[in-house]
User: Fold these one by one.
Assistant:
Number 1:
Amino acid sequence: MLKKISLKDIANQVGVSTALVSYVLNNQKEGRISKEVAQRIRDTAKRLNYRTNQVAKSLKTNKTLTIGLIVADISNPFFSSLARIIEDEADKNNYTVIFGSSDENPDKSGKLIETLVNRQVDGLIIAPPQNSESQVNYLIEQDIPFVLIDRYFPAIETNYVAIDNYKAAYTATQHFIDIGRKRIGMITYESAIFNLNERARGYLSAIKENKIPFRTTWLKELRPNNTKLCIEKAINELLDGPQPVDALLFSSNIIAGWGLKYLNSIGIKVPDQLAVISFDESEALDLFYAPLTYIKQPLQEMGRAAIKILLETIGKSSKPVQLNMEAGLVIRESTAV
Amino acid sequence: MLKKISLKDIANQVGVSTALVSYVLNNQKEGRISKEVAQRIRDTAKRLNYRTNQVAKSLKTNKTLTIGLIVADISNPFFSSLARIIEDEADKNNYTVIFGSSDENPDKSGKLIETLVNRQVDGLIIAPPQNSESQVNYLIEQDIPFVLIDRYFPAIETNYVAIDNYKAAYTATQHFIDIGRKRIGMITYESAIFNLNERARGYLSAIKENKIPFRTTWLKELRPNNTKLCIEKAINELLDGPQPVDALLFSSNIIAGWGLKYLNSIGIKVPDQLAVISFDESEALDLFYAPLTYIKQPLQEMGRAAIKILLETIGKSSKPVQLNMEAGLVIRESTAV
DNA sequence: CTGAAAGCGCTTACAG
DNA sequence: CTGAAAGCGCTTACAG
């Protein structure tokens, strides 16, 4: 790289101190600097194409105007959509975002947190994987501002922004019942992640409260790895036998993606044979021959709230803000009566 | 935040200079420091939970170990997949990535470049929007390492990693011809972006060289804005009249997404009435009842190459490396004979 | 084997 | 209205 122009270069050219240059370029002490000198400083800065070195500024001010975003996988449409919203909101506040993908792996997320903290991010937005409680506690101990998003740990008092997953799953299941379905399956991950458990809990509650005799084989909890085959196997089990399910709730867009592909390939008729609802939308789901009924998370609001809370926390540590937003149910053909 | 532990704190505790602490923690001058002291320094660092302040280190070393990634839109699956690959490759080299979305807008990309440069990123990976030549020239002037990805400006000599879009479109069009299609349409964006022009050029060449009488109405070039309606209109025009097209090439995954949705809704039979090929894959496309034949870009290789070239350029400025990789054609049901 | 010291490019109280 | 100076937390020649 070329030698960069520094404040000192401008100061030398104009024949003033770097202090003065700094004040002018930061629009400080407005009234107290002679207009003429201020203008000469500005002109020179422009002529030399001066760019402030944020690293030096950060070291001095102890602010980097950078936030770290840790998601499970930036290539998952749910997270990349969220990332885009967070990017835009951050930008409005002159913040820049560094991202990292944890792959739902606590070791990776721990390393990411460490890297980002070393880089002195002003705060973090994290979708924490299971078993990462200690990392969250570490951030609390170190008094590093952060907001959990999508998931959280009910036992730890932190900022978070999520949806009411219990209610969302309950509503979806109730919808199946309302359109007359009697045997309702659900495919989800076997996981300690709170939001997934809430989804299963909501599903079970709705079934119970409607006095539908529940069969344990209706709820399939998959290992997160080896997903594709497991999903196919789960679907087979749900559809085989004399009492196949007539409705199916997918607990994530990824599961829905694989699941629909498989339903396609084995020629199941949706919604006639099987009504289907998925958590989260995805361009993908629109191309299924029966556009999917889905649980729509208010991503925009979630991203906005996360940034807002984070910036407030950066400003001054305050009481944790905990937001359980309400998700919508977008009803389409996959649950048509 | 809590007061952070600095090198000085460790130095004070152990009773040595910060220089020594720095050497030990960076594993420098290994043999020349007494084992005993080194061990005490390490123990103390651990006990105090020392984290190095990367900002201070960066200021001194003039390296931030950060790269900037500017794409059109991080929520577009093409770019988020690329981002994920770049993230992983960067991580292997201890680099971290800051991203930004330009929305194909040169003003936005200009601002992003400025922000990232001010933040002293060591280098940039950019998918440049149209009319951003001046920004690229600025980077060259300033001798800031960068690699263009996905698109580039043939008139400017830079590092870039892209596919041979001409060839990819040619191959796709040839495939239509090989399966007996006679009236082949293409929907693309009206744009000065080189890669899109190359796609149109490849399509036209294939038609010409196969001596198919080309009709200008077959090539639809849309304004990038208001896409959905434009695509529907374009499809209507292509399918209306006595001589509807019997094959259709979509020049991006976004266009394909909207296009397929519309084909679905108007009940066109793929591939019987209309054979279809799209640029780029997407989970989405698998859910279309006739899984799509698509042009597969070697994303993994592209991301890897981009990082490799960038890091080499950061190491020492060298001759521009220009990679036109070959895309594959994945043949599926949408072009079945 | 170890330390004193300069310096990276800024900001900001303090003094005048 | 303006400047000299300290300091943010590191690294690294240099000296011993």
Number 2:
Amino acid sequence: MRSPASARRRRGSAQTFERVYLRLYDHFGPQRWWPGESAFEVIVGAVLTQNTSWKNVERAIANLRSKDVLAPQPLYRLSHAALAELIRPAGYFRLKALRLMNLLEFLFTRYDGSLRRMFATDLSTLRKELLSVNGIGPETADSILLYAGQMPTFVVDAYTNRVLKRHGWIEPEADYHQVQQLFHSRLETDVALFNEYHALLVRVGNAHCRRRPRCEDCPLARMLPRNGPLDIDEER
DNA sequence: GACCAGGCACATC
DNA sequence: GATGTGCATGGT
């Protein structure tokens, strides 16, 4: 645990993170994430988007919707082969069909197929449970918790990492937990803030930090420390 | 034709 | 514990 004095000395204050957020919000406006019409659609999208562009995920979700199976019960009744065929455009379709089946199996055996019951569980417990499902890793679990369950956990994805690393805010080898801790320690625990902040990082990552090693022309240029990565607190 | 995209599990050392 | 590999479609 840090003393108040050392907390004041750490690089990258809560105020810095607020300034970054406001800069992004002013520049891009509200992102209104997650792009999905229901909590269940968010969950399915979170699995389908693993290492896959969102455009391809949209095709797969459109297939599910056209067959009227974009809900727990109907999706659970599909065979692996039928589900795989519908989600083919999202890539890794056999693997993702299996992962969705694993998740549905969990939802029905543990929570009787009820998302309301599942999200009534406390955050820490449910996160552990989701991580125990084969095919659900930290990013997918946190996306489900935040964007489908409205639970306050920060999502770290390829965009988050890209933006932070390109601007030198974090060490290149920082892992998922460390990056998440950085946000948890600097931000108020607030679902709407976590939601919008992550969505804005994706937006700026798409617009500016994609291929260039440094992003001199992006809204975040020169906003953060020139002298090395930020300190990561180990406890929240 | 190479490279990339909103990961994750598993094998191997 | 660290590193490498398979999984697959569609856009640039």
